[in-house]
Amino acid sequence: MRTRLRVLYNGIVIGIFCSLLAWKSPWLQMRIPLGWIIPVVAIVVYVCYMFYGKHLEQNWAIFRFSETSIISAVVVILLILIYGLNSLVTIFGATIREMFNAEWSLPITAGLIFGILVIWFIALGIDSYLHPVAKIVSGDKINKLTLQSKISLVVTITFLVLLVVGYYVIPGYHDFINKMSVMLAKLDIKAIRDYIESFGVWGPLISTFLMIFQSILAPLPAFILTFANAYLYGWYFGAALSWFSAMLGALLCFYIARGVGRPFAEKIVTKNALAKMDGFFDEYGNYTIIILRLLPFVSFDEVSYGAGFTDMKVGSFLIATGIGQLPATIVYSFVGGSLGGNKMMMFIALISFIILIVVSLVARKVLQNRQAKQKINVSK
Amino acid sequence: MKNKRIFFGILMGFLLMVGMTFAAPTESQAAAKSSTAGLTSSKPIKYNKKKKEITILTTVNGTYFTQPTRHVIVNVDGSNGNKSLLKTNATPKEFYNDLKKVGAKAGNNLTKDSKAGKKVKGTKLSVYFVINGKRVKAEKAVQVNKKNVKNLDFRFGGNMKTNNKMKTGCVLCFDSCPVGIASGAKYGFQYGEHFTGKSSVMPKDGTKMAVVVKVK
């Protein structure tokens, strides 16, 4: 019962977030009473709990109080940032009253529902203090074919099939991919910049798509995009955009590999190759990822896929990727920023580039030494 | 423990119910009888043949002071009843008939298949919101894309057939529309949701307000 109340609370909070976000689309808000998104999302969340939480024993799907707090805080902060308090009260009240076709006062309706949620949240907090929910020890064995891995396999394959079929069916998408592949393969920075710029306000979004696209297709280089972003949006914002979108791309690769799963991958790539990779990741641990990201011109996408096949945790993969990416992203952004003819930028870029190479080589050396030491220890 | 939980759940539900009842302004006998400009929710529309004017009783929907819409006045029972700056109990059919009675001629030049950007035709109308007893031009109380607008050029579009079929309840629209009985010709068909009420001019959310439509 307690868990159900907690899951229901999360479902409602996530539902409220989705429905209020939908107000951003006039087209949508003019066609449906957005309030109905709340129960629909709540039901979806509940079904997730029933299946992933109860059946597959996944930690994320039982919404322990820590997760509940994070979700609540993120939702409130995001909504206030997006709408500001006044608009938020108006649309929140409107969302609720529209469902009931009523003419209640907007602030009172919003305040009342918010009040109920706060009381509910406090009750959940007290409850979790009195009866802490233990973390489930995940039965997720990466080498075994479980129901979950079968599901993720089907979902991943479907996703990939849709990507490929979409290419042949949707003309706009087809042209987009063709254009991009040619530009990226030719390393045509100016063309990419103009292309991203032609989307105006949507430029950053398109740039993110491009980064994700080049992540999935391993051979295409990413640094060109980093240049273009810095060229367009200045090195500071450009770097942030490149860093964020590259993280998304890496995460997607990771999850595609994770979704395909070990048992299936073993059939395609030999067991031996995967075992070698495991050894590689075991030896270097998370440093591998950081080092490989540091090295310029190394296509990182294979590593993202590789990490997805090992039993590495998503969190540590993300942290390692984030740290490892930072220097290269900043340096490339300097280079991109200097393309506008800024001499000072050019100079900084050159210096940082040299530093980057040196640091990554030194780091590699240090790692090799450590490994050598470990081997000696083992032989002792 | 489980009983406690169930009790807690019931208490929650009860609280919700109580809150809803308090938050909902129940339309008491007095409210139904209180009249604005001689109109009540049971008799929400009247016309004056001499002055060539129609007066409609509406309720302000404050949602559209912050959110954009294309609907000025919509009947509460229509599918767009919650999507307009002003709600009304008057039906599109009553409004259409009254406009005919005061001598307006319908344009009937738009259909759902009309090209985007096509402008509505028909007799010119002026629309006034009665705020604190004073007539304020509708244009003064709204913004388009967050900018002030001089003249929305309202016309008697007609569209009774489409209106009957669609059941949207649309009485008056901001931009040229093949469904609304009257709409603004300044912006062509499918201009979109870009209109917001000015909270500095408009009465508060939930206020009853009379709207006067005058045939030019």
Automatic annotation (TrEMBL), chain B:
Q: What is this protein called?
A: 4Fe-4S ferredoxin-type domain-containing protein
Keyword Signal assigned to the entry: answer is: yes
Sorted keywords for this record are: Signal
Q: Which domain of life is it from?
A: Bacteria
Where is the signal peptide, in residue numbers? 1-23
